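User: Could you walk me through two proteins back to back? I'd like the raw sequence and the structure tokens for each, with a short line separating them so I can tell where one ends and the next begins.

Assistant: Of course. Protein one, sequence then structure:
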Amino acid sequence: MGTSKKEPAKEPKKQPKKDRPVPVPMSPEQMIAEARKAFFVMFGLLAVVWLVQLANYSDHYALSRDYAVVSGDVGTLPDILVAPLLHWSWAHIESNSGPLFVFGFLAAYRGVARFLGLTLLIALSSGLVVWFFEHGDVATVGASGLIFGYFGYVVVRGLFDRHLIDTLIGIVMGASFAYLLTVAVPGTPGVSWLGHLGGLLGGLVGAWLFRDRRAPRPASGDLTPRTPAGGRTPQPRPDSPRSDLYKELDDLGLL
């Protein structure tokens, strides 16, 4: 009677992991199309804010009283999403309209869908900070929280996305409007500094949450070899994390 031999179990072959696709940089035509969308989105948002103000004024600002965020009042929690559209006076809405359009456009021109998610996040963060931490029976409305959120997002977005143009825009906006931060600290009279601070935090978090995801750096190096005789600057591979930067520097005439 013969004995049977057991063949050693074969280990399953491991399939090579597929690299994540690298986001393709937007062409100038796509960027112009997104900027056009951003313009009309912000124009529409500003139109809604002013139409709401007309209705609010005609009713002696009853909307602001009825839909304001009041700290600790559970009934006002849903109003967190409505309060940014309301204001207490014409001076209030006039002071908010310009910064809202400018920072909103700069936040939206790289993608309207991302911008809508960012707006929701900022409205929630600004309203919740007011709801949890405001003292007294204070009714808070206004687009200032959105403005500070867009400002924070625009200033740091380029750093998270590793995008040269957005980084330069962030530096310019941060240097030009740094004074805005003075009304996001305690002790500022007549304004909801908590709403400003909450919006700013939401914008900074949004810059990280909605950042461009990049593939990891290739182990074999970033640059494709070039023959010395060609005399050309080494160019990055298409899958290099620095390919966008090289392309933008080349478009600007810096390479």
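----
Protein two, same layout:
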Amino acid sequence: MTPLMQAEGIGKSYGGVVALSEVSTVVNAGEVTCVLGDNGAGKSTLIKILSGVHRHDRGVLRVGGAEVEFASPRAALDRGIATVYQDLAVVPLMSVWRNFVLGSEPTIGYGPFRLLDRRGAREIARKGLLDMGIEIRDLEQPVGTLSGGQRQCVAIARAVHYGAKVLILDEPTAALGVKQAGVVLRYVVQARDRGLGVVLITHNPHHAYPVGDRFLLLKRGTVLGAYEKSEIDVAELTKQMAGGAELDALQHELARVIES
């Protein structure tokens, strides 16, 4: 099976600063690839390359087996790569339905006399949300009045509705409580089950492990480890991400201090 997206030895430098070095991973249809790391690990740089914001300096990026270099996020979107950033790219004062069709608005009329098809847009939003099992009572309410979890779910449903093949999620649960994080992760699983390849960027292994099929651990721009789910459990994943050797050394040092 040809992967939806594959990174081979990707590297990126900004002047003399190496942000990424020799990073490889794969995104398959119907699977979740989790990219984990602490602040400064290189997660943001990687997703900017995958989503067309930045070009890589080294290595190869493939989509559907063909080598690509995205000139812009629009070029990535045209190839089915949709990214939902932490700020969600929503307009808080606009209604839910208006945000759902933002950038892909249906119109009526011809030429310079075209107008926004409000009824059609509301129906697109309603159907797109219901297809993902998302119920929002009032599509006219400003999207800024929704909870953080609901806004994430709207953004995920929008990407799925408009034909994304690969869905990249940038820390979707970072600012959410336990219950809302669970809701978002449920829709991540739904997107996976609809055949999308999902890239979940997170610093929380307890959010990643239940939904992930493979795990890429980054540290200071390099690969700390790459595992299939069958190769690692959540305890070991947490330990590696937290720096197991450093924690063990710290525990020994603290024990000596306490004893003395």
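The chain has nine helices and twelve strands.

Let me know if you want the two compared in more detail.
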